[in-house]
Amino acid sequence: MFSYLLKRLFGLIPLLIGISLMSFFVIHLSPGSPTDAALGDLNPKVSYEARQKMEKLYDLDKPLWVQYKKWFTRILRFDFGTSLADGRPVIDKFLETIPVTLAVNGLSLLLILLFGIPAGVIAAVKKGALFDKMSAVVMFAAFALPAFWLALVLMDLFGVKLGWLPVSGLTSLDFEYFSGPQKIADLARHLALPVAVSALASLAGISRYIRNQMNDVLEKPYILAARSRNLPERVVLYKHGLKNALLPVISILGLSVPGLIGGSVIFESIFAIPGTGRLFFLSVMSRDYPVIMAMLVTTAFLTIIGSLLADLGYACVDPRIRYAAEEK
Amino acid sequence: MRSRANQRNNKLFLPNQGHLSVSGGLFVCSLVSAVFLFLAGAGVAQDSCSSVPAAGDTIVTAVLSEPRVLVPILASDSASAEICGLIFNGLLKYDKDLELTGDLAERWEIKDSGLRIIFHLRKNVRWHDGEPFTARDVEFTYKKLTDPSVATPYSGDFLKVRSLRVLDPYTVEIVYHEVFSPGLASWTMWIMPRHLLENEDLHTTSFSLNPVGTGPYRWKAWKRQEKIELTANQDYFEGAPYLQRFYARVIPESSTAFLELQTRGIDAAALTPLQFTKQTHSDFFKTNYRTFELPGFGYTYLGYNLENPKFRDKRVRQALELAVNKEEIMRVVLLGKAEKTTGPFLPQSWAYDTTVEGERYDPGKAKELLARAGWQDSDADGILDKNGEAFEFEILTNQGNEQRIKTAEMIQKYLKDAGIRVKIKVLEWSALLTEFIQKGRFEAVLLGWALGRDPDCYDIWHSSKTRPGEFNFLRYSNPRVDQLLDEARKTFSVEERREKYHEIHRRISGDHAVIFLYASHALEIISSRFCGIRPAANGIAYNFIRWWVPLEKQRYKTIER
Known about the structure:
The complex is a heterodimer of chains A (about 325) and B (about 550).
Chain A: H1 2-29, H2 36-39, H3 48-57, H4 64-76, H5 90-125, H6 130-144, H7 147-161, H8 180-218, H9 221-228, H10 233-245, H11 247-261, H12 265-270, H13 276-285, H14 289-317, H15 319-327
Chain B: E1 11-15, E2 58-63, H1 78-87, E3 92-94, E4 100-102, E5 105-111, E6 116-121, H2 135-146, H3 155-158, E7 161-168, E8 171-176, H4 182-186, H5 194-197, E9 217-223, E10 227-232, E11 245-250, H6 254-262, E12 268-270, H7 273-279, H8 283-288, E13 289-294, E14 298-304, H9 309-312, H10 314-323, H11 326-333, E15 338-340, H12 363-372, E16 385-386, E17 389-390, E18 392-398, H13 402-417, E19 421-427, H14 429-437, E20 444-450, H15 458-461, H16 479-489, H17 494-510, E21 514-520, E22 522-527, E23 556-560
Parallel strand pairs in B: 2-11, 18-19, 18-20
Antiparallel strand pairs in B: 1-23, 3-4, 5-6, 6-8, 7-8, 9-10, 10-11, 12-22, 13-22, 14-20, 14-21, 15-21, 16-17
């Protein structure tokens, strides 16, 4: 097990270098320059000389490989540099937004598992029954609805028409003056819609997935064997059925690790939530290279770690995988 | 509970729920103060401002994106400019009629026919931290503006200064290399405090997180990507502002901002023409908000690459202009919330020659002119051709501006009727700029210019400004216009400048250099509880510190903690 882990970890090094190379060049070779942002919507008072001076100060006049070398040696020391947009350390900007995105995505993942798995199991057990048909329609509809549209409709309904929830933002204006419990309630009210909307589409996906997995498993001979041993249906379903059906969920969870901190531009913009998705979007639009690079590399790193964790998780729960790895 | 003294600490703002009702017009104060065309749309009559302004209350505004930097000379995005405008002052500012007037400077003298400008500064001004404001701060700001190691986009006008001398703590003398009249307007640049920034690197300084200025509002707090809070400067040299608190909420989606208006989560927002004309007429909006249609500060045009052989012939350019129905574009795309323009200046500016008529839509005459220029449909395919080459070209415009894209589509249709095939390519802003415009790789562009208050447009039209990255990317060249642009910079007399700019207007328009399409209006909506808003040529924000809310309508009251 340990040597397996070690092998996998060493394998990561060339992968990471490759990722850093690719993301660096893709961003720097894309048209546009960080100095364009200073122009705004074409302001003729922003002179040609001034923009040239800015290019020089940002090292943009140097050859690409020199810029890459500079950047890479800094990254090795976990120094992501400072943002070209506002001169603040990239890491600060990043760390400000992560808790928000993590909270929204973590909560929505929780919701997804909490509702998606039972819904899938019930649909599989009562295959063809009313619940299965109904849930199929609802889930496919939820899957197909554009999230931004759903978000706006819900904001209009709960925020404007009913007035139950705030329309957007993360906190109320006078949040700083609230007491502890008030703060929690305020945050909960603000987070309700974004979490619900972002959970909905994935909820649909995962519940259909579980249903299909469960269906497959329930047709396996060992379920028949369990039933013929006259085990209670509850034990058949949960101990023998669900346990096996849940295996692939591990890899889904593993792959959702980078998603936890990679926010969604659309949700965050519509709900005016200060998360990583918007930071990334704004940085791309203003060609803020250090911020873009830091986010790309971090996300790529987390994707790799996530799939590594998923593999290890498999090895833990499924002895067959573990032995196969060790035999190699 | 409400007190004006000691506002800085530990106050709590809560919605003043007891007084939300909007009273009928007991004290009607007329907003129609001047002869301006730009008046409040809905709700003027419901205004019930009593005669004595009261201090208190808060205004909550929305910005599309967070300010990037709050170091004044580095700020280039609109959100930073909005916040800096409340915290800092320039030596000069524009009054309601767009005339330059003193701000931190009490008065100024122009000597040696404009080579020297002497500013006499106000003596009673203090920075928000209590330090006095002096000529050294002006000198410091100038030095930073011209420092090669400072990445300011605004150095251009200041590099024309030969020297800046501090004559005494309240007098500054500025000498230019040559007479440069737009230079006066450049002193509207916000002045920075020397004592706080002298030993700082402007690009990384923590000052940007806690700016200290001389302006009507002082910095309070910044919740990243969420909101910015400012409080009234009780010692402001023009008197403390009435509105005690200013919030800017970051709301990146305009549809979200519109929903927030409907829950009164924000007090002010910019509207689209559709929202302005169709979606804000409900009773809710009529009782809670007032809308304003104000002159904008920019225009939209269709420009050609004038070095392209197709567009070298003036008759062709004139024909294109005749073929495009500008009135219809304004009616359809902007729902009439715009003004027709005929030249390179803002329609409300003194530089704009109102006698220039421009071409009226006349497709017949357009065809005739094109035929005279040799463009005929010889193969009867509906497209004009000349020497076997069909008349077709591509219009580039930027993504994210629906109005421009729709305008381009309408132009495509008009020109198709005239026998010209037009393709439209919509590109992301930065890519459009670096890959196509700066490299001269385009046939035509549909873009706009955001213009300052000073009419100097040397950088856009002078034939020397055609290097990649400079602004005469259409490569317009007319020796007489060059000469006039030069001369207009060399005189401070408004009469003389007006004459020259009027001629520039006539010549550029007569050359049919571009199709000047429209100057869209700024459409604003503001909670009707605010009094003292007086629309003028300079918009409404110029007297923001004199806006106020009658006591009975104040929504956020201050409570001692």
